[in-house]
Each structure stands twice: as structure tokens, then as C-alpha cells.
């Protein structure tokens, strides 16, 4: 089973419906530069994209792939959006060499719409400058907020062609509505759903992710991150001025917390407190209280001066009084030296791939 799961679930196959060949012809004839693939969960998006990419490579195209399927990434690392350039034919997205990443910090885009759109846009632009055609893989999140997300991605990247895979059951209507709503922004093409697609339940999807996390963090080591050298983003912690002893005492007295560290921003406070007392009644727009435990094994990203993600880390131990973080990362000294920023994610995960939980966006 492990052998099967170490590769991505989508692999190259020629056993695809006829309309995929028609699609390749359209891309070739129209010289489409940006093509986005949309469909519901397990509808065959990645399998279709892999087929189309290989056909185009066979025709001599230099193909870039933007993998924005954050829940089931083919191009590592997980929880980012990645740009890869195919060096030649490939059977599996994980063979495509990554050239740039954008940090999302979690495996579901629902609370990170803005980051997802910005990331896809930036990597598509980069891909356009490096390849003849950019193929964009997306998540199967297409209803509710997912509907808006897909629309926004299309508005931002202006694909020459957007490929939809026919939905099944109630998803059929979602796909039709989405297609209608963007038909003034992009050319659209509706593909049949392959009879070969197979569904993966949440436990199987988690298991596939577990293997990928483990692969990414293999051979990692703990490094000391000095916060006086790196900017912190993705959280209201570590910014503003430190609390005065009086403020700390007052907050502790009012709320009955043990405050480990805290900062005063323009108008709001952020504190790290020991233990979760379960109290949620305080006004979070005034004070953001972070449980120390929720920082353990939190995913972080190392960001370079261009705002792109160099790689990931797992926060192992915040040494608050020293202004330092101990972070497990596979990045080399040379790569870490390019980081200007450390960004906080919203998933807790171990280096063996065990997902300990997602955090709400406003929790940090
Ligand atoms: N033409 C095909 N022949 C054989 N298997 C297929 C075919 N199309 C899809 N599958 C299988 O169906 C499953 C789902 O396909 P795929 O991973 O491409 O879907 P997806 O829409 O990209 O999924 P996700 O929602 O995770 O992004 C995979 O196991 C894949 O191998």
C-alpha cells in the first residue's frame, strides 16, 4: 500500500476520454498561454493536466505547471502553491522540477483566499516568462467560498482557456454555474468525466498527505531563528512593542491568565498565554490571546525578499524571552541565508506527517 501511496494519486495515462485530444488541439492551434483546470474533488483534474502537459511536451512546448491544489500537492512542499517547469515527459507531478513557491501555510484554502489568488497570480506571471504555456491545477473546492475563489483566480490570471470537468450529482450544477459566471472573462471548455476516476475518502487523502509531509521533512535539522534578523508575518505576535510589566500584570489579573509574552500593536494587544482555559468571551479585536500549546509543531514558511517561499519549517520551541525560535527545517544554511521573513501558517504537523490540527485564521 505504502508503495502506491508514495506517488501522487494522479499518474500519466493514455486511457482518457477522446475530448482530451481535442483539448490539446485547441491549446496548440490557439497558442493559449495560460490554461486553468477546474473540477470538483477527485474529478480527474490532475490526471487530465498530466495528459495535456505530456502531449504538449511531445509537440515541443516548454510547459510550466502551477500547482495550487494545496490539499493534494503534486509538486512539494505541501501547504504552498508551486511553480514547476517540466524538463521532459513525466508520469507524475512529483517529477516536475519546482522553481518557485508561494506560502499558504495550510492544506485548505477556504480562509486564505487572498493568499491563494496572489500566489497563483505571481507564479503564473513567473511561469509565463519561463515557458510557452502555463497549466494551472486547482483544488476541488468549487462551492460556496470555493466558487468565489475560482472566479477570483480567473479574474487575476486571465487564462486564455479554462477547462472544466463535468460534475457529478449536485456538483454538475456547480460546475455549470461557475462556467457561466466566468464565460465573459475566459474561453471555456467542458470535458467529460472519465469513467476511471476514483474517489478518495478523507482518511486516504490524509494518508497521502502524511507521506508527502514526511518526504519533505526527511533529513531536517533544528535551526535557531533569531527574530531580530527576520521579520515575522502571518500573525499579530512578535510585532509592536513588548508589554510593560504593568500591562502584563493587568491582563493577567483581568483574565486570570499566565501571560508568557505579549506585544502592543497600534490599538490591539497580542499575548501568548499558558494553557487553554476555554474562555472565549474576551474581545478578540482588542486582545489576541494565543495558547502556547497551539504554537508547538506549527508550520512556518521562510520567505525571501521577493515574498516567495524558500521552504517550510516546523516550530518546535519558541524561546520567547530570548526572541528566538527553534525550527525544524530541511533548508540548507545557504537557503536560510536568503530568508528575510518567517511567516506563520495555520496547521500543526509533525515531521513524520501527523497532522495535529488546523488553526483558524484569526487565532494567531
Ligand atoms: N483516465 C483515467 N484513468 C485512470 N484513472 C484515472 C483517470 N482519471 C482519473 N483517474 C484516477 O482517479 C483518481 C482521481 O483523479 P485525480 O487525482 O486526477 O483527480 P483530481 O480532480 O485532480 O483530484 P483532487 O480533487 O485531489 O485534486 C486518481 O486515482 C486517478 O488516478
UniProtKB/TrEMBL annotation:
One annotated GO molecular function is:
ATP-dependent polynucleotide 5'-hydroxyl-kinase activity
UniProt xrefs under Pfam families: CLP1_P (PF16575)
Catalytically driven reaction(s): a 5'-end dephospho-2'-deoxyribonucleoside-DNA + ATP = a 5'-end 5'-phospho-2'-deoxyribonucleoside-DNA + ADP + H(+); a 5'-end dephospho-ribonucleoside-RNA + ATP = a 5'-end 5'-phospho-ribonucleoside-RNA + ADP + H(+)
Q: Which residues form the Clp1 P-loop domain?
A: 39-219
Q: What class of enzyme is it?
A: transferase
Q: Which keywords does this Swiss-Prot/TrEMBL entry list? A: ATP-binding, Kinase, Nucleotide-binding, Transferase
What the protein does comes down to: Polynucleotide kinase that can phosphorylate the 5'-hydroxyl groups of both single-stranded RNA (ssRNA) and single-stranded DNA (ssDNA). Exhibits a strong preference for ssRNA.
Q: What is this protein called?
A: polynucleotide 5'-hydroxyl-kinase
Native species? Thermococcus profundus
Amino acid at each position: 500500500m505504502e508503495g502506491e501511496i508514495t506517488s501522487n494519486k494522479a499518474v500519466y495515462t493514455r486511457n482518457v476520454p477522446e475530448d482530451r485530444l481535442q483539448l490539446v488541439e485547441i491549446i496548440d492551434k490557439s497558442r493559449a498561454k495560460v490554461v486553468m483546470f477546474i473540477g470538483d474533488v477527485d474529478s480527474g483534474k490532475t490526471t487530465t493536466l498530466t495528459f495535456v502537459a505530456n502531449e504538449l511536451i511531445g509537440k515541443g512546448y516548454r510547459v510550466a505547471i502551477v500547482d495550487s491544489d494545496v490539499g493534494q500537492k503534486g509538486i512539494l512542499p505541501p501547504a504552498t502553491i508551486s511553480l514547476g517547469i517540466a524538463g521532459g515527459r513525466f508520469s507524475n507531478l512529483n517529477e516536475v522540477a519546482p522553481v518557485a513557491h508561494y506560502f499558504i501555510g495550510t492544506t485548505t484554502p477556504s480562509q486564505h483566499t487572498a493568499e491563494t489568488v496572489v500566489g497563483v497570480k505571481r507564479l503564473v506571471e513567473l511561469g509565463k516568462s519561463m515557458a510557452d504555456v502555463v497549466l494551472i491545477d486547482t483544488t476541488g473546492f468549487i462551492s460556496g467560498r470555493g466558487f468565489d475563489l475560482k472566479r477570483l483566480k480567473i479574474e487575476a490570471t486571465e487564462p486564455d482557456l479554462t477547462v472544466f470537468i463535468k460534475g457529478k450529482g449536485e456538483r454538475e450544477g456547480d460546475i455549470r454555474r461557475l462556467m457561466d459566471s466566468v464565460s465573459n472573462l475566459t474561453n471555456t471548455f467542458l470535458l467529460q468525466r472519465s469513467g476511471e476516476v476514483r474517489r478518495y475518502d478523507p482518511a486516504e487523502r490524509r494518508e497521502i498527505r502524511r507521506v508527502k509531509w514526511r518526504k519533505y521533512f526527511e533529513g531536517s535539522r533544528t535551526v535557531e531563528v533569531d527574530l531580530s534578523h527576520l521579520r515575522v508575518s502571518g500573525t499579530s505576535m512578535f510585532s509592536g512593542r513588548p508589554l510593560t510589566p504593568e500591562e502584563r500584570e493587568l491582563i493577567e489579573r483581568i483574565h486570570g491568565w499566565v501571560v508568557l509574552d505579549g506585544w502592543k500593536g497600534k490599538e490591539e494587544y497580542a499575548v501568548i498565554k499558558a494553557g487553554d482555559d476555554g474562555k472565549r468571551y474576551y474581545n478578540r479585536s482588542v486582545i489576541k490571546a494565543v495558547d502556547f500549546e497551539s504554537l508547538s509543531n506549527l508550520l512556518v514558511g521562510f520567505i525571501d525578499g521577493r515574498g516567495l517561499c524558500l521552504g517550510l519549517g516546523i516550530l518546535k520551541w519558541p524561546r520567547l524571552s530570548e526572541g528566538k525560535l527553534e525550527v525544524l527545517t530541511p533548508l540548507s544554511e545557504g537557503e536560510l541565508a536568503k530568508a528575510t521573513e518567517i511567516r506563520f501558517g495555520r496547521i500543526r504537523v509533525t515531521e513524520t506527517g501527523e497532522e495535529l490540527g488546523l488553526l483558524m485564521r484569526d487565532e494567531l
